[in-house]
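From the methods appendix. Each design record in this collection lists the tokenized structure first, followed by the designed amino acid sequence. Records were kept in a plain field format so they could be parsed without special tools. The example shown here is representative of the layout used throughout.

RECORD:
FOLD TOKENS (124 positions):
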């Protein structure tokens, strides 16, 4: 997991390029949306892992992985994909994967806030 970026710089660069091409505020909107929804999704994932509801767990992990991928959160996306694959193949998720989600989200949150601050500072 250490090889993956917390936030993929190429994805951030691509999103900034879209902003310059006529979508002002896109990156900030994506960051704010993610930060607004991810904590609830992570709590739901954790609860589903405890109750063993594999199909719902797989779906929630898939949705969160997609959200992570949309803004380049590689470490968190990989953990979500692992949870999704575990739920699909075994009906459960390894406790280490679930435990790693919180710290991975905190690292991502810190980096997203830093990026958002930079983005705000670059606004005219």
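DESIGN:
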């Amino acid at each position: 997991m250490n090889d993956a970026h917390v936030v993929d710089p190429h994805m951030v660069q691509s999103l900034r390029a879209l902003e310059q091409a006529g979508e002002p505020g896109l990156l900030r909107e994506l960051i704010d949306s993610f930060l607004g929804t991810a904590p609830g999704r992570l709590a739901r994932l954790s609860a589903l892992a405890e109750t063993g509801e594999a199909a719902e767990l797989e779906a929630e992990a898939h949705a969160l992985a997609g959200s992570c991928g949309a803004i380049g959160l590689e470490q968190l996306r990989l953990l979500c994909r692992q949870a999704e694959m575990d739920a699909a193949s075994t009906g459960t998720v390894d406790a280490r994967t679930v435990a790693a989600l919180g710290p991975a989200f905190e690292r991502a949150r810190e980096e997203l806030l830093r990026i958002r601050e930079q983005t705000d500072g670059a606004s005219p």
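APPENDIX NOTE: Helices lie at 9-20, 26-51, 54-71, 74-90, 95-122.
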